[in-house]
Design brief:
- The chain is globular and about 50 Å long.
- It starts with a strand and ends in an 11-residue tail after the last helix.
- The chain contains nine helices and five strands; from the N terminus they run E-E-H-E-H-E-E-H-H-H-H-H-H-H.
- Helices cover 55% and strands 7% of the residues.
- The longest helix has 23 residues.
- The protein is of the alpha/beta class.
Length: 233
């Protein structure tokens, strides 16, 4: 089945109709702000596909992961934009992968995360695998910040900056790049962040300073202790 609203087409199986409706609901709430951030008046010509066949989803996804030498991560992939569209799994598959019950609302919020990637690609023109952390920093803050509200209360327990590396992005990196993105969006000029989107080489050259400043900011904003931030004298 298909559902199209405001130029966005969702392809889905009848049993996933509630998820399709929830995705449109979440995008109506967030898409305008996300598009405005990337200076886009509209973002069309892409589809959202909710896959009804998990094995077919894996067959479709694997070549893209192999291109980036990440084929071993396929068992954790529940949504992606590798083909410039949003491809995602419904909750009957995601619940097994995440090993917990999930709601259509949660998955719709994840779709907003992927929508940020779509807008990022439209602004930049292509995917930039070298700076994966930056793509995810923007997507977590603009698309699904609800999933990181826990940082405010549990920062000291779960955030250890010594375990983070720009060059080794994995599932545990999301909480760190959320903090970095939070710092960047609240402290850097919007035009500077967009410069980083448009010119990844400039971003790469500024990485060390961004990380140092983000750690100091995060420790002051989220930490309940008086420990000094890494790099702070």
């Amino acid at each position: 089945m298909e559902l199209t609203i405001n130029g966005i087409t969702i392809e889905y199986d009848r049993k996933d109709g509630n998820l399709a409706i929830e995705i449109l609901k979440q995008l109506e709430q967030k898409s305008e702000k996300i598009m405005k951030f990337f200076e886009q008046k509209e973002v069309k010509d892409f589809r959202i596909k909710i896959w009804n066949d998990y094995e077919a989803f894996k067959v479709f996804t694997l070549p893209y992961l192999q291109e980036n030498n990440e084929a071993e991560n396929i068992s954790w992939v529940t949504a992606h934009t590798f083909d410039d569209n949003i491809n995602m799994l419904p909750k009957r598959y995601v619940s097994k992968i995440w090993k917990r019950d999930v709601s259509d609302e949660e998955l719709a919020i994840e779709a907003c995360h992927e929508f940020v990637h779509i807008c990022h690609m439209r602004y930049y023109g292509k995917n930039d695998c070298e700076n994966t952390w930056f793509w995810e920093a923007l997507a977590t803050n603009l698309g699904n910040p609800e999933n990181f509200e826990w940082v405010n209360d549990e920062y000291d327990k779960y955030v250890d900056w010594k375990k983070f590396s720009f060059n080794n992005f994995n599932d545990s990196s999301y909480k760190y790049v959320y903090c970095i993105g939070n710092y960047m969006l609240k402290n850097l000029e919007h035009k500077k962040v967009l410069e980083y989107v448009k010119t990844p080489k400039v971003l790469k050259s500024d990485e060390d300073k961004i990380l140092k400043d983000a750690i100091i900011y995060s420790n002051k904003a989220f930490s309940k202790t008086n420990n000094k931030a890494f790099g702070e004298k």
